[in-house]
Amino acid sequence: MKSAAKQFADELIVCGMWGTSSLTLSLVDARTGEILETRAGRGVSKLERDEIEIELFDICGHWLSNHEVSEIFLAGMVGSTIGWWEVPYLECPATLWEISAHSSSKLVNGIRVWISPGLKCGNFLGELDVIRGEEIELLAWLRARPLTRRTRSLVCIPGTHTKWVEIVGNEVTRFQTSIVGEVFDLLTANGVLVTKIRNANISSEEAFLCGVEDAAKHPQSLLQLLMSVRARSLLAGQSPEEASDRLSGLLIGADVSNALALAEFREEMDILPVIGAKNLAERYAIALRHLELTPLSLSALNIGVAGLLELARSSRTQ
User: Fold this and answer.
1) Any idea what the CATH number is for the domain that residue 269 is in?
2) pLDDT digit string, tens, across residues 262-301
3) pTM attached to this predicted model
4) How far apart are CA 235 and CA 248, in angstroms?
5) How far apart are CA 132 and CA 120, in angstroms?
6) Which phi and psi (to 5°) does residue 248 adopt?
7) What range does the domain containing 290 cover?
8) Alpha helices in 218-290 (DSSP H)
9) What is the pLDDT of residue 9?
10) pLDDT value for 276
């Protein structure tokens, strides 16, 4: 029989969400889910392919030297064509078991490293669509969702590229990507609609909700409504902060209205979780509540670790 210390050591794993611009690595007790330490690193777009392995072991080498870590689990763009090695997209519908079964592993420097697959589907418009990394957040949602008779969830994952994901039972069936965050960044950085103000929090909820409501009423007229941001600043005394919030409200309002319509969301039958970084997820939650819907807000803090922990547990049962 192993000693208690040995048993504990054998249950330590490293979990990493490795995106285009950043890396977050966590040392995790696989038995309890406790995060013992977290460290940050560079995203894959900032590294050459042969530098990715070096970056990983430079950051977590101290853990590997001082603890008996059993495995490393990674998700995100690290498994893409610009990542460490490519892990093919898994076709939807896909279950938790299938995501785990299609993860790819290699023995690197004497330790087993796993990378999860992304997902691909025909989206709500019938177009091809892909995600990488978000599938891990969805695993965490599948594990944590409340007991209910409603078997369908429409999961909103706000970000630079916001994801609207349909889950029926235990399957991810399809999803839709909208580039709301990227459009906002492009318009504020290069356009004339607003000055370069980047407030994480809403400065004027009135301006934000006005934008949400206008876009919800006329989602097909978003391109025309966007000009109102500039016109109100020139002619109606709208402040730069109000202009920024109106622009955000217009984009998010149009995104919400279109996504709910395309997914045929029905609140009496479906659940609407919102998973994301606090400030952006809160904007979506405020918009949804203003449209008389009930979002189930979930913090994205550590949700990547929770999903990778589900991946680790599932891989051990195969």
Assistant:
1) 3.30.420.310
2) 999 999 999 999 998 778 999 999 999 999 999 998 877 7
3) 0.90
4) 20
5) 9
6) -60, -45
7) 178-299
8) 222-235, 240-262, 278-290
9) 43
10) 84
